[in-house]
Amino acid sequence: MAACDKLHNLRSLVADLRVEGPGTLDRFNAGSEGLRWYYEAARRVLGDALPESLRREFDAQLEILRRATPPGRARHAPDPQEEPDDRP
């Protein structure tokens, strides 16, 4: 269930980025780097426990996020080893 929630949030974020552009990121304290870190960390934590179809969709949405968010907009530097909580 957590995986579906994270995927839904990621889809919504990508959809907003497509419509509103990078200004979408201003709603988040973490900025683009923090958001990428959060969803990349979530994907690592979920690992192979995701069904194949969800894994492919999550990876595809994550790749769109990576391409759509320029580096350097982070407002803090997340620890790459830290596991994500529920706050992007």
Low-confidence stretches: 73-78
Helix-strand pattern, N to C? HHH
β-sheet strand percentage: under 5%
**Could you say which structural class the secondary elements and strand pairing correspond to?**
mainly alpha
Mean pLDDT: 83
Work out the helix count.
3
Shape call: globular
| Number of E-state strands | 0
Helix content: 55-70%
C-alpha Rg, in Å? 12 Å
Total domains, how many? Answer: 1
Amino- and carboxy-terminal Cα gap: 17 Å
What characteristics describe this protein?
88 residues; mainly alpha; 3 helices; globular
Description:
- With 88 residues, the chain is an all-alpha fold.
- 59% of the residues lie in helices and 0% in strands.
- The protein has one domain (2-68).
- The chain is built from three helices and no strands.
- The two termini are 17 Å apart.
Helix-strand blueprint:
Layout: H1 2-20, H2 31-46, H3 52-68
Helix pairs in contact: 1-3, 2-3
Give a brief outline of the structure.
With 88 residues, the chain is mainly α. The chain has helices at residues 2-20, 31-46, 52-68. The protein has one domain (2-68).
